[in-house]
Amino acid sequence: MAPELVFLGVLVSMAVLFLLTLHQQRKEHENLTALALRLGLELKVETKAMGLQAVRINGWREGRRVEVWGFTTGSGKSRRRWVAAGAHPRECGSLTFRFDPQGLGTSLAEFFGAKEIQVGDRRFDEAWFIRTNRPDIFGATLVPELREKMLELRDAGLKGAYRLENGRVMYVEEGTFASARAVAHLEMVVPVLLLLTDVVEYCVRR
Asked: I need a labelling partner for 25 at 20 to 30 A (CA). Which of 2, 137, 170, 201 fits?
């Protein structure tokens, strides 16, 4: 094949990829704008190179700062995109926790020494692999109302993980804001994140 045709093919491929990226970005912007309005939060847009944008929303609900954002991990063929929502407790001290859906990954983690706690609720314990540095108190703070809401969301398709990280209670699942389903999941999970901030604040005071 002539070098000119190879070069032209590369240019066309790059142009198509760029246009697809812009289309997805517009869809993400639309979905996040609607979500910000529904949650009463503020949309933040950061313009990057070539007109691409990074969009996130944040604001306050029930006296806690709430955020919704996206991020990527890996690169090339192993690149993965994630969406997340977070709520900041008023204080979190040195407490750590994470809830991972029970499965092969958690079985391997347990095999290699990860210690889970059980709360004595069979359905909940079968659904979640819970780790914390305060096993003496953390499980007791997961009241029935909170456990039931977390199970309802799991049954509704929210298969991501919860964790306390960088001073905020987070829910993370794989996906993009171009997906209406992923955006709906983040809207549904915000009330549970706020309940988990209550748990964090209670544990810190004990």
From this structure: 170
* % of residues, the chain, pLDDT over 90: 68
Hey, is 88 helix, strand or coil? coil
Query: How much is the pTM?
Result: 0.84
State the distance between the two ends of the chain, measured CA to CA, in whole angstroms: 72
Contacts for 184 with CB less than 8 Å, ≥ 6 apart:
none
Block residue for tokens 């108190």: 137
Among candidates 91, 94, 110, which has minimal Cα distance to 102?
110
Helix (H) or strand (E) holding 189: helix 180-205
Q: What residue has token string 């954002």?
A: 69
How far apart are the C-alpha atoms of 181 and 172, rounded to whole Å? 14
User: What tens digit of pLDDT does each residue of 16-37 get?
Assistant: 454 445 556 678 888 999 999 9
Return the closest-CA partner of residue 145 out of 187, 95, 198.
198
* Residue that the structure tokens 């993965």 belong to: 80
194/200 Cα distance (integer angstroms): 10
Strand-pairing partners, residue 71, are: 82
Under DSSP, the state recorded for 40 is T
Cβ contact 200:169 at 8 Å? yes
- Helix (H, G, I), strand (E, B), or coil: what is residue 125? helix
